[in-house]
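Section 4.2 – Deliverable D4.2 (structural model, holo form)

The reporting period included a commitment to supply a predicted holo structure for the target in complex with pyridoxal-5'-phosphate. Inputs used:
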Amino acid sequence: MDPTEIYLDANATTPVLEAARKAALAAMGDYFGNPSSTHSTGLQARARIDAVRASARRVLGATEGDVVFTSGATEGIQTAVLSALSALRGRDDVDCLLYGATEHKAVAEALMHWNQLLGLGLQVRAIPVSSDGRHDLVWLRAQAPRAGLVCTMAANNETGVVSDLDGIAHAIEGSPARWLVDGVQALGKVPLDLVRRRIDYAPFSGHKLYAPKGIGLLYVRAGAPFTPLLAGGGQEGALRSGTENMPGIAAFGAVLQALEEEHAFHDLVTLTGWRDQLARALLDAFPGLVFNAPLAQCLPTTLNFCVPGVASKTLLNLFDAAGMRVSAGSACSAGKAAPSHVLTAMGLPAWQAGAAVRLSFGPADSAALISQACARIRACGAALQGGGLPCATEETRLAQWLAENGGASPAPELDAQALQQLASACPGLRLVDVREAYEQRVCGAAAHLPSILCEAVPLTRLPDAAPAWLALPADTPLVFMCRSGNRSAQAAAALRRLGRVQAYSLAGGLALWPSRADSASGQAARA
Ligand code: PLP
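Output (structure tokens):
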């Protein structure tokens, strides 16, 4: 990771813990065996899986039932839904399947998919949530007697709202429904007590807690119906066939061990203190900032907020320029323009649901990182207050100008190497940073591209700057750059449409610009 980067998007994914990396490497090296083999190499691998499963049982409070390794939570959710729904065939005492309106998309999509595929024809209904993001238990209690499956996440990935699992358990008492609790975001942060709470299915995902992507696990309560999603060689006690992902399991095991030994992760009191520090910095930096869920009911590691009058895209660009990685909601919907379904379900007005920013850290982060993040948040606030936020008229003017001049075909892109080569061949090359003024204020292009002279013209000012560029000699290359390559692509396409054949966009923007560490290792490799 770039040492100057402050990663605050832990709910999307986390880096892999050092101990987990070592464990994965060992599982690919010294202990590479297939756990189904009966020779000693296989037996060693088998012993490792057994040890990790035992550790998972202790961490999850799963003293009985099954703990099955999966590829992640999406697979765990599919398996649980398939299992519960398969057992509903021919039943006339149930007519609906219920899921929290703020569940991860994987849950609602799995319910609809398997309901249709199994031909059950049950109603799939969203359990409403109130403005604090918690389930409407009165509604749930009224629906539960006819429900075949109830799905309620333990903690929300966008807001961090922690569900009232005891209240839900009470509301579905006596119902024929099985109960699925998505434990992904709760693992390592809030105790789940699966057996005591009579939870039937609980999926988890390794990459949300310092294990690699592609490993997860599913808890299945003793006696709960089970239908394998994957049939084959009978691994995992025939509950999930396919040769086990040993590096992933070993790495997840190292994380579980760290949780048990309480040395790598900070406790809830510390995490809450850090959250409060970040919340204070945000409120100081952005007057009028609103938190989208009551912090007291949220995971201590998640803050979801918006700043009236400032789009989430603006804040994301600003934070990114300052080297802080946050997101506008869940990672799966980060590329979609629609307002968050979670915040909409909580009844937040459209502007608020569309302007949200999520900042999430992990229990293995450090006090130093949080202090540094607070300092950068304050710097971002100062940069924004320094002006340069495009007003609505400027945005409209730009949109019209781009609509008139936007390229029918995209402009060619240059990667870092091609840019350096073109700059050497054409000393007159003009590099234009089209990020807005507040982004340039927190981190100018010179920090990334010290060897190339760069002028700063925010995208909204493009219509004013274009005539001067059009007057340049025809062989002067014009290269636009921004954070991710989107805005620069728009600028380059427009200039090409206006007749500048030598207009380019920097591919992937500053996000893909080789970090100093990459360049150093590249140079070392070439030396
Ligand atoms: N459930 C929740 C609450 C999540 O946050 C995620 C990941 O974003 C998932 C399920 C899906 O997990 P995976 O990436 O392991 O499939």
